[in-house]
Design brief:
Structural class: mainly alpha
Order of helices and strands: HHH
Number of strands: 0
Number of helices: 3
Mean pLDDT: 84
Distance between the termini: 57 Å
């Protein structure tokens, strides 16, 4: 979960949701462990790990999507400028 937080998952809505789920599941697992429900806690921790990994992937994807959109916008602007300058 720390890696997802450090990648800015809180700033990407989809990643923030997954990160919150991972945190919530971790807290629930702690309670289950206190109550002696080790098997259920293990399953919940597996889900938390998967959600944390998804949050990390989504956080990494966010800046790439923005970069791709910027590149696309730049290409479109150049294409328009090129069309306007053709004889």
């Amino acid at each position: 979960m720390r890696a997802a937080e450090e990648m800015g998952a809180a700033k990407v809505p989809e990643a923030a949701l997954e990160l919150k789920l991972a945190h919530d599941q971790t807290e629930q697992a702690k309670q289950l462990l206190k109550n002696g429900e080790k098997d259920r806690a293990d399953l919940l921790l597996l889900r938390a790990q998967a959600d944390a990994e998804l949050a990390l992937a989504l956080a990494k994807e966010g800046p790439l999507v923005a970069d791709a959109k910027n590149a696309s916008d730049e290409v479109k602007a150049l294409q328009q400028r090129n069309q306007q300058t053709k004889p």
